[in-house]
Amino acid sequence: MGAAEDQRVDRDLVEQAQRGDREAFAILARTHGDRLMAIAHRILRDVGRAEDAVQQTLVIAWRELPGLRDPDRFDAWLQRLLVNASYAEARRSRAWNANVRLLPADGPGGPDESLSLDNRDRLERGFRRLPPDQRAILVFTHYLGLAPTEIAERLGIPVGTVRSRLHYAHRAMRAAIEADERPVAVAGGRPR
Amino acid sequence: MTDQRELDRMLGAFFDEGADELADRVIDAALDEIDHTQQRRASRLPRRFSTMNTYSRLGAAAVIAALAVAGTLVVVQRGQPGVGGSGPTPVPSASPSQPASPSPSSFVGVTDEALVADLLAMWSTPYDAARVAALYAPTAVMYDKVANETMRGLEAIQAKSKAMEAVEGFEAVVTSAPIQQDRFVAHFLKFGNTAARSGRGLVVYELKDGKVQNEWVYDATSSTPVSSSTAKSDEALVADLAALAGNPYDAARVAALYAPNVVVRDLVSGKTQAGLAEFGAWIREANAQNFKQVVTSAPIRQDNFIAHFAKFGDTSVLSGRGLVVYELKDGKVLNQWVYPAP
User: Fold this and answer.
1) Which of B3, B26, B175 has the most A C-beta neighbours within 10 Å, making it the best mutation to test the interface with A?
2) Phi and psi at residue B168, in whole multiples of 5°?
3) Dihedral of the CA atoms B49, B54, B59, B63 (nearest 10)?
4) Angstrom distance (rounded) from CA B263 to CA A77
């Protein structure tokens, strides 16, 4: 099935769901669920919280769906709901989960050609220190591959805000990579 | 210095890793909740929040928090004491056009049916000062145990009820039949506003001379993904739970009913047990004193929360009457509260 056909099917399902068809909404939820989970998990860095955010998103989507004026915008609209739900999930627990993965330098997976383990841990720590709105911008930029104008439209914020958040997020991530050149402690204890 | 191109490459690799599949149980839980959720009518969909900026939205949320109670509302904050113990966050409530007050025929053991029906209906109808005055005693006190606010006296309750009228899109829906023990009546509800900022609560009224003398609103927002699937019916589960403390301690039986990290907050005795070991010690103590608990109402449910009234054995461990509330996770009790209802 081609992309155009997919979009037509989605549009039909969205219109049915807008009229209260729960079966149609269930199909939409299952179709879009994995994508929502992938985004939420990358923002929240925690499977449980990501699942909570996705569940909230689906329930809110069902309730608010009749107000969606353009069914073709369903995917983008759903992602906006997800980001808002992720913000709420983040606010709910201000202390971000500190279970940063620490592996020995010569870890079990062998050398990672694209990203060293040290750098991965530094990125993880740096990312967890970011506020949720900057996290979301990084995920939309580097995971979904969207341009600032597309992100602005999708999240309903000014493009200048997107660029500003992206700038600060990049600066923080760069600092996280460069600030800690010392080897990561492995023995037992929790990461700082 | 890490240049932008290198940073982009590293972030791309960083985000390549992560969960890519949503568990079926999450979708099932969402669909289960949707079965009980009314869609908002498009023509009535308020647009104000969708065009507000973050600060305005937070400000509006703060106003709602400040107005908590009155007709009444709870803005839930995870981690604060209350029936939920933890957990706030925005889950929508049903459409204001679909008040869900149970009909009198659905009442569970309620003897003041007309009064209770009026109280429940008040959640979904416009503020009416005379109506509030007819239902609440002049000295009535309303406790929002989540927002930690107290309204003392009819005028304070009326003022808050009236103020709620100014909160655009606020709505509350009664989601369970009321249950009763002596002068106490309880029911679950969902509440919220149009910004998808909402929550769930448990409301308890103490009635006297045909009016509300005291009212408590507790948080009942699930701290875990909502699932209605339990291995047993609510009635069977509640019976098993209630029987535990009245029978010789059986570790396997307790472990089958309670999560390892269960927290039991007993506001009657003022004691809290955290974890199966502490809870087991409490059960042994109760056993030694021939403690008994009798369930005195049908259980009512909202999402992962089950509540029922009970009477307790006259021992030094616990005695009197109370409202027992369980939060379930995967069919086991994750949190339990016992509130006095003397």
Assistant:
1) B26
2) -60, 130
3) 40
4) 39
